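Standup, Tuesday
Yesterday: got the pipeline producing structure tokens again.
Today: sanity-check two examples.
Blockers: none.

Example 1:
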Amino acid sequence: MKLKTILKSIVYRAYYLGRYHNILYSRIKKNDFIPILSLHKISPERNSFWQPLHPSIFEKLIIHLKKQFEIVTLHELEQVVCKKPKLVLSFDDGYYDFIEYAMPILKKHQIKANLNIIPSQLMGEKALWNIAIYDFLNAAPVLLLKEIKFLNFDAKKLVRSHLNKTQFGLLISKTLKNLPSSERDPVIKHLEENFFSKLSNYPKTRMIRLNEIDSVISEHEIGVHSYSHNSMEFETMEYFIDDFKKCQEFFIKNHFPLLDIYAFPNGSYRPEHISYLKKNNIDYILLVDNEYASCSPYSRLNIAAYSQYEALFQALGIKSKMKVKHVTG
């Protein structure tokens, strides 16, 4: 474990021993905030570029949250009446580890969650570019990474700036994430042909497939995370509409529940996207901006933690900058 990670664990444990979590909980309760947690991978496997939440940490988080919150689905936010504050578990992407690790824990504690899938991945189409890059970078030796060059990205120059492998990989991802697909796709093809091909038999991230999704639908709430998982603020409106219609067609063709949940990929959108979704009967629009939720579009709190205390404080909104009601006494 890296020094920075160890220090963060120590700091969050100190916060817990100092009972700062009770202050955050009181803020949520007194201001009627709704924490909607944005989760992704739940797995014991390590990845330097996108560390999954370990199943043991996930379960400890669930146990703690159940004591203070009523954990509900998005559809239950208005339906369920309870004394405790409400909280939603919202998963994006549709990794197979949701079935393998998250679902048994959720079932054990009798909790339902929201899962936002990417239809292209359920259909077994080409792996998402960012997942393919993370898998490659996680396995690639440093010498191979030094050869990477595209657009204004020159690995040799960055290596001389003493970036470690993780920082280097995240910079590649960030550079590509902020490009429209028309500009990024040729770069991905270049990387596949000139770099990915030099590395064989390395572990690939497994996604949920169409023939495996029924078990999820029978127990949990399903939404969509776009068809292509591109950052929509960099795409044309025509692209966004076409992508959304593909999602609608997929849900209808495969007899999925009514599509009324949409989570923006990478939290990337423009205001006109939200207007379009509302006009097309999407009642639950999900963002990722580390804020509490109130109404649609719903803000979410990102969970990316290495310890149970870090996960707890992220779930309680330690990074939120939302203004609160003045509370006396």
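Example 2:
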Amino acid sequence: MNAFEEPFWNLDQLRAWMISRAPEAVQFARIGNVSRDTKTSRLIRRFAELAALRAAKKGRNIEEELWAASSLDPESYQKTRSFYSLSPKERALRGYCERRPLETELFMEEALTRIGRARLMIRGLDRVEPERLRSLLKDVFADNAGQEPPREVVVSLFPYRDYLLRLFRKGALVASGNLPGKRALEISLAEWAGLEIAEGDNTHRLGVWRVGRTANVKHGADRLNLSTGLYPGAGDIENVRVQREGILKLFPANAPIDEKSEQAEAGRPSMNKGGRPPVVDWDVVKSEFFRLMEHHDNFSPDDPEWNAQARLEEKIEGFCRNKFGRRPGRTTIQERIAPWLREWKQRKTATPGNPET
């Protein structure tokens, strides 16, 4: 059976689905043969993040959905991240991998790390298939072009693991697991109050541990860090499973639709005298649109915050939610900003001294 269709999922599958809503991420996070399953929680999470990035390029921002559903304040979870500009050869490699299965894109990212590159050179770069991928990797490795200093960008990182723990502690999600040597039982709310979720044991998969024990586990000071356990990620409670049906209700496969917003916008009631007022003040939204475009300028593949029109649409969505308490549908936003983009480009072209004139 495909792992996505199984009635119970492990914690890594749960988090992968929450991040990506991609069945292939759930399949990737399955627990295979214990002796050969080397997928760590970090790799599984990155696989899911890559799937979410592909969804964002198609117009669905899953992280934005999570912020809205959780009622968490993104500004409370801001971090500074460094982003490096890609060389032409790196862009060619990434462009190729982004059109291939997610496993290929993940392999590429791992290969470009310092450790990944060393491992690949030891094992033999000539073994990489297909030939086109091997050729592109060789081009990047041979590229001696100097790298520009990184750009420091402040981003809001959704607290996936902490949010899951909160859902378990208030009963929104229900899990079962085994105490060592005992049969599986549902983990009660009282028990969750003294538990937390963390990576543990020698497989580095997500597990459930008693509060205060995870610090030791992370630093290898606990005997369980050397334990194989019954399953990857085995913690103080082993083989933790969450019912698939409950997961899909809380994290639906399809993007939520603000039906009232769509209905209100469908007939452009604001155009009709005496009609229902629009869901948002589009004049205010237009001002925010021009502010964003003046601040960021044209979309650039080197800017992770502004590499496609989808990033602009996400900013407009977030602005509407924060300003008006409502989120227009993505299609409505796209229809609205299309003429604004043309107007902005015309203004930019007409600006005296602009190099494009």
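Quick observation on example 2: Residues 3-155 form one domain. The two ends are 60 Å apart (CA to CA).
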